[in-house]
Fold these 2 entries.
Entry 1:
Amino acid sequence: MHPNKHIRKELKEAVAAGWTFEKSSPKAHVYGIIRCGFGGRDGCRMSIYGTPRSPENHARRIRQMVRSCKH
């Protein structure tokens, strides 16, 4: 998965909670995208960056997104 341990931990927890992780192509700007189990146009989603400025803050945002999902 992700090279950073904080982000990798949150991605594993998101997948365990029913979210899907879709890795982008090597030429893409983002590392991948997570989507909630609701799917479709109205489902929750978040871009995962490969080299965020603050990996700990990015991991915290992932955790908040997964916990605040209404679906």
Entry 2:
Amino acid sequence: MRADLAAGYGEERLPRYTSYPTAPHFSPAVGSDVYAKWLAEIPANLSASLYLHVPFCREMCWYCGCHTQIARRDDLIAAYQRTLRREIELVAQTIDRRIKVEHIHFGGGTPTIMAPESFTDLMAALRQAFFVLPEAEIAIEIDPRTLTAEMIEALRLGGVNRASLGVQSFDPGVQVAINRVQSFEQTKSVTENLRRAGIAGVNFDLIYGLPHQTVASCLDTVRRCLELKPDRFSVFGYAHVPSFKKHQRKINENYLPDTLARHDQSCAIANALKEAGYVQIGLDHFALPDDAMAKAFAEHRLRRNFQGYTTDASELLIGFGASAIGHLPQGYVQNDVQIGAYSQAIANGRLATVKGYALTDDDRLRADIIERIMCDYRVDLGEVCARHGAAPETMLQSATRLKGLISDGVVKLEGDRLAVANDSRFLLRSVAAAFDAHLDAAKQLHSRAV
């Protein structure tokens, strides 16, 4: 990885391209009535993926960029769970048939903040409303500090087979600076207990670019994690946006590493994981060679959605919960971010969609190009454009940012085939942005490219 490129491109604020167009371009023009119409028009042969957002935590981690709030009272969480169940019923009634489901993902917040019986009830509601396939992947995000033995048993009974554990860093100084003190022993215990319960798929989430973080502390965290040998790692750069997430103002910016230091940390983590036998996947994932994600990457079947890289091939993602985003063949929808307003809409028997985006043919073409760049480090523009009835020359002419990337050696273009140079893969977002026709209007809302 080239430090000169990190310095040149690293300060630019760009999307992570978990969708195209990205969420800042959603508008109130797509509301609950449009969403209901789109649901009713779902093709009969289409299977679905489900995302359930649980926006509660016991305490706030100061680096957090998620839609979540602190919940001290369990009755608030129970009431929210009942609202989720009602929303599931509303969506199922609107679709008016029991469609197949191949993937379910619980995100947050901390989904395991629910009472075990509430989680069990929610899984029962999903299985009643949808045909959850026996081989479906059911994944959940976990805070190891609060997971109980009772909840692990509920996860097992609910069919959960993949768990993502937030680790971030084992450096004590970093943990204090981000208000997330979590011992290695806690993480080890939870990992072992999950595996004992038959939840074999275990992912660890790490973050670089945190206050007081150094290359040495990043490598020490990786070394400790490797003792537990998770199937996958997600490695994200900390996005410091205090104007958008006010709790991030508690982080002292004077202790944040600069762009080159972030670059060094990212490289060190990537090299350590690859040396340990993990396959680097896309921008920020690593997986053991026999993992399903590594196989999907090798076979060019990897996809990207709002949960990041995924093996999920479905064109239909239904989101439940406050702020949840869905992706349908017609476009994107998002529920109200405010829990109260979301809950009131559902209580009134109305879908809680407050904004979205109706896709154009050009959007679909650009989305496919961007997804292949983000997933494969390359794209055959001729092949993708042919599927959409478009000319690759038109795409190349519109991608004015490509000229600089080519001259800097970031991108190689041979005919209609574009490939990102091996030492420039950390700039995937910069390459993808060359095909983003909506980019400039929302740059300020995104995180740094490196």
